[in-house]
Design goal:
Helix 4 links the parallel strand 2 and strand 3. The N and C termini lie far apart (61 Å). The longest helix is centred in the C-terminal third of the chain and has 18 residues. Helix content is 37%, strand content 22%. Strands 3-2-1-4-5-7-6 form a 7-stranded mixed sheet. With 272 residues, it is of the alpha/beta class. It has one domain: Rossmann fold.
Length: 272
């Protein structure tokens, strides 16, 4: 059987702020869990690192309405959506690795962003240095490297091309197979010497999602973006076709019409 693949347009490589909002309530839940562990009375300066559409920034504004809020993100599309929020905040387009604050913060929040960045052994201690004495660093990071949907993505890159050949470059496949997150014990050993209090935990949430392809809809705006950016239009179309076939097989709809989508996260709350 032959399959004609339609080319995937440029939109596949851009941040889709509207699509990211599709599961906003589920994306907000780990932010709420994280902030429950943050013990700060009157922080004056708060920075939302990788703020995206402002899901977490809204929660920060609600809890600390007198604080000066700054949201930074590398995506103009995400920031355009965030600027529409009815909250008092400043927004800056900037890559997190290039961010150098003019003054220290009382709270740095990193919600679902650090898992995209390598070398946490260097990154996290550097971020802690941007805090005032008594300040707090709070982060949650999706831990998806052992997830079934992520393994299916790696398999599709390995054999989703013509005649079962790989898709993309060897560098892409190597990069997607890398594991930037550390183990819980490793985060403790890294951060305990430079903090006054440290709380690290891990969760696995059974997310109940709806839609024709809800698992794909979730990951296409986050984990799959590096893949889409690295593939040409023909490769994108082949990848999406074969990946959707595998995802639908392994994540079928339940009898009630919902799809079950387990999701693991690592949380860190550190005070200096």
């Amino acid at each position: 059987m032959s399959v004609r693949f339609k080319t995937a347009g440029k939109a596949c490589t851009d941040w889709d702020a509207k699509a990211y909002q599709q599961f906003s309530s589920l994306r907000q839940r780990p932010v709420d869990e994280l902030l429950e562990r943050v013990d700060l009375q009157n922080p004056k300066r708060i920075v939302d690192l990788g703020c995206g559409t402002g899901i977490a920034t809204q929660q920060l504004a609600k809890r600390w309405p007198q604080a000066k809020l700054l949201g930074i993100d590398s995506s103009a599309q995400m920031l355009a959506q965030a600027r529409c929020l009815p909250i008092k905040a400043s927004w800056t387009q900037c890559d997190l690795l290039d961010w150098r604050p003019k003054q220290p913060a009382d709270l740095l929040l990193a919600a679902a962003v650090l898992h995209f960045i390598n070398d946490h052994q260097t990154l996290l201690p550097r971020l802690l240095k941007q805090l005032r004495n008594g300040g707090c660093f709070a982060a949650h990071m999706p831990d998806w490297r052992d997830a079934l949907w992520y393994r299916l993505m790696l398999e599709t890159l390995d054999n989703g091309g013509p005649n079962g050949q790989p898709l993309g470059t060897p560098e892409l496949r190597q990069r997607m197979a890398a594991r930037p997150l550390l183990g819980l014990e490793d985060y403790y050993r890294l951060l305990a010497p430079v903090t006054t209090s440290l709380d690290i935990w891990e969760t696995e949430q059974l997310q109940v999602v709806d839609g024709k392809s809800p698992v794909y809809d979730w990951v296409k705006v986050s984990a799959l973006r590096p893949v889409m950016q690295a593939l040409n239009s023909e490769e994108q179309a082949r990848f999406i076709y074969h990946y959707l076939m595998r995802v639908h097989k392994h994540y079928p709809q339940e009898g009630d019409g919902h799809t079950l989508f387990a999701f693991k996260r690592i949380f860190i709350v550190a005070k200096v």
